[in-house]
Structure formats: structure tokens, C-alpha cells
Amino acid sequence: MSSTAEATPLPANWSKRPYHRKWLLDQANGLFDFFQTAAINPKGGFYDLARDGSPLSTDNPIRGIHASARMVHCYAIGDLLGRPGAADVVDHGMRYLWRKHRDEKNGGYFWQLNDDGVADGSKQGYGHAFVLLAASSAKTIGHPLADRMLEDITEVLETKFWEQRHGAIAEEFSEDWQPVAGYRGQNSNMHLTEALMAAFEATGEQHYLDKAIRIADLLINRRAREEAFRVPEHFNEEWVVDRDYYHPNEMFRPAGTTPGHWLEWTRLILQLWTLSGKQNSWMPEAARGLFYQSMLLGWDRNQGGFFYTLDWDNVPAKTFKLWWPLCEGAAAGHFLNYHQGTILNEDQYRKIWNFIANHSIDQTFGGWHEELTEDLLPSNSLFPGKGDIYHALQACLIPLFPAEGSLTKMIAEHPLVD
What we know:
The protein is mainly alpha-helical and 418 residues long.
């Protein structure tokens, strides 16, 4: 090389630098390695893992449907990338979902199983949303159960959960489909929005996208806009905000507001805007508002990281730091950089990844710490170990692809090259 040759300049955008992109791919591979064999339960489904990567419990452990479905989704992504062994994980999960979680008598999918059978037979909107995501992702790699599961879960969502009058799904039913009255939740509908977009991409069927737009309009264009783009979590059956709602399960239904979900919606809204032909002008505005409020109100300016919840006066309520809001913040930052690139968005993206690198990645055992105290020490007050690859894996891979669709679609259309 000539000494007078000009060096190739680094991209001004930090997130596009080759080292950063390689670092992200290395982190994704580390997550795949951490879960791929250790999480396989030979009796069906998947183990939750302890900090050291061993099964958290082997004595008749509970298997939640969302965990099984997320593993299917993530290892379908791995197979699309070309990862050896990933398709076997998908097959293990799909067979468990279809043969065990599916209720052959009443229809739908059981919430929790153990070695003996059904541990909790309730029919949860949250769980069914992830079944749709799993089936959609499995279809992209040609799994033989995918089409049957897609047809089945679509019918269940349409005939049991979907409430046309509101444009969203009901939350919960008993095992034999008796309604559990009095509550509607944004979390299940948010994840259904993600799954509906994946189903639209996998099948080309417009009705999936139409439902996603209706959910987003209700929860973001109306309810979140009414709260200055703070996303309410809990509602009554008429979708009126319930500010005093309390439920003992604070993993899925924490009181107050949850900035991590505002970040998650930032990404989903911009993806929905793209898939719907950029026709809904309120969506980019909403995405900016959601991300701005998340960083303004949810970020701990002293220690870093996102508070888990705020009260309705924007005061931090549950001050420990979870990994998944950081993951959603990184993905949201990429989507905003891609569609509305500014120095501010780039700085926030960089700030989030700096925190993750310094505090969330477990340099001793691998995987990510799912929970830190407010003072950034690993803890397990809410999450008992390392039970989930889904959020962290997507955070690492989403920035490597155009922000125009689900990872499964983007990987198929934009393969990674050196």
C-alpha cells in the first residue's frame, strides 16, 4: 500500500463502525453459546438457567409458554444466520409447544407446564402472542409444524382474544375459556403487535398488519399520547387507565409505568410505520416522544441504567435495574438513528451500550445479569437467574441490519458479510 494512500475514514456514526458491529455479533454469539445446550430440558421444553449457566432447577421445573416460544424465535434467527445446531433447538421447542402446550381438548395454549403436565392451564394473551411469534419465525426456516401452528394460533387469537370493538385483545381466560373479568393490559398487546408484524412478513396476509395498526393506535396514538407519551400499563375492560392497579406478579404486571415498554414501543412503532408504507404520520412523532420521555424520566442520571418503574408523578418507584429495558433502549436507538438520525439519538444509543458493556454482561460466567440493584450490584429479587435470551439477543443483532422489519425478514434480505 502506498504511503501516500488515503486511509478509509471511520464512519461518523459510532454505531456503524466495523469494530462496534463485530463486537455486537460477538456478544450475540456468546448468548447463543450460553443457552444453546444448557437450556435444553431432555423431558421437553427449556430450563431457566442460574447465573453460572447451569439449570436453575432440574426437579420438575415449571416451563412457561413465553420462554419456550422465545427460544424458538431466537434460534430460528440463529438458523437464518447460519448457526450450526440452531435448527435443532427450534425443533425441540416447536414439538413441545405443539404436543404439550397446546390444549387439544379446549383449544389454545396452556400458560405453564411441568414434568407431570399442566401446572397452570389458564389462557393468557401474553403467552399466545409469543406462540404467534414462534410460529412465524419457524415458518421462515421451513419448520414442518409452522404452518399448522400459525393457522391454529391465528384462529385462537381471532375467535377468543380479539375484541373488534376496541381493536385489541382481552387478557386472560380460564382453561375452558371462561373470561377473567376486570382487566386489560398493554404488555400482552405490545408483544402481540411484534408478533403480528412478524406474521405479516412471513405470510404476506394483510389482516395481521391491520390488527397491529389498530393496537398501536389504541395504546400509543390515543392512550400514551394522552399521558404525554408515557405508556399506561393497566386498564379496565373499556380501556380506561387504572392508575391504582396492583398485582403481586410484578414481573409481568408492575404497578405504575414502565419506561422499558416506552422504549420497546419506539422500535415497534417505527417498524409498523415502515411496514404500513409510511402512511401513518403520527407514528414517527410518537416514536420520538416515547424515546425522549424514556431517557428524560426513566434513565438514572447518577448511576446509569433505567429504573424499572415510575409512579404517576414520574418518581422512580422500583429502582433496581433490569437488563431488558437496556436491550429495548439499544434497539430503539438504532431504529431512531436509522429513520431520524441525529447526534442526540446517536449519543443516547452509545450511552446505553456503554452501560451494558460495563455492568450488564457477566464477564465471569457468560450471559447477561438480568437484574442489578440501584447501586449496580447483581441481584435476584425479581428474576431468579438467567432465564431468557430473547431481549439481549435482539439488542445485539437489530443494529446490524436495516431498521425496516423484523430480524427474520432483515436477515433473509440483508445477509451479513465481511
